[in-house]
Amino acid sequence: MLLSEAACRLLEVLDPEGVLIGGLCGAIYGVERYTRDVDIAISLDPKTIISRLHDKGIEAMVRYSNEPDDLSWVVHGHIEGIEFQVLPASETGISSGSFQIRAGLRVADIKSFITSKCIAAGQQDMHDVAALSLLNPDLLSFAKEKASQHGCLTKLESWLDDRRLQQRYSATPDSL
Amino acid sequence: MAYMTKMTRRKIELLEQIEKSTPMSIYQLAQITGRNYRRVFDHVRDLSDAGLVNIRRETRNGRQLSIVEHPCHQRLRHLDEMFIFRQEINATL
User: Measured between CB atoms, which of B71, B80, B86 is closest to A4?
Assistant: First the structure.
């Protein structure tokens, strides 16, 4: 099974609440980097998610956390050898109502996606936000505002200054 | 972007339909949009000439088809290919 097929299958099982985020969503919006799993945000309780997945024969388990910086729960699973995570939409900055249909998949709209990346705030996440801002300069101020809100503006600016990223994603690298 | 004769409302609608759907043949595209095959073919060719879509030859059930892809389909396909390549490398280790 391919990653895109796994995403399609999972979104079918979690329809209509599930929304694709993560590396596959980034690829749809133009960010090209390797990913090995499928991430879905959803506004459902974990027991319902597990029940829906098990009904379709998909292995999954939920992990809860009380740590202040962690998500309160994450559903982890495998579908034909491909790892996936289902995350709580409200905690990842995703609204189930804010989505677009692209390539036959229900994907988070680009602003929600940027917000989710700023909440996660890892280096890879900031790479993706910088790439999206270079591809869509009209989103740059929004991305900086979100990064500032979530304490990762310095990381974002460092990626925006990256020459290789500018050459790859921006038509006019000196315009920033 | 290459020169395109004219970006009409119909071509924009077609481009939006291609982006929303999974990759499909020009025939399927004409069926789903309820439009004339020849007209859809010409519009897809214009969009392809402008670099807005890609036309890929594919054989399905022994028939040669022209599959229309939006750049987002190409990126997903590239990601799938990288994933398979990485799995093959891991399998040899």
Answer: B80
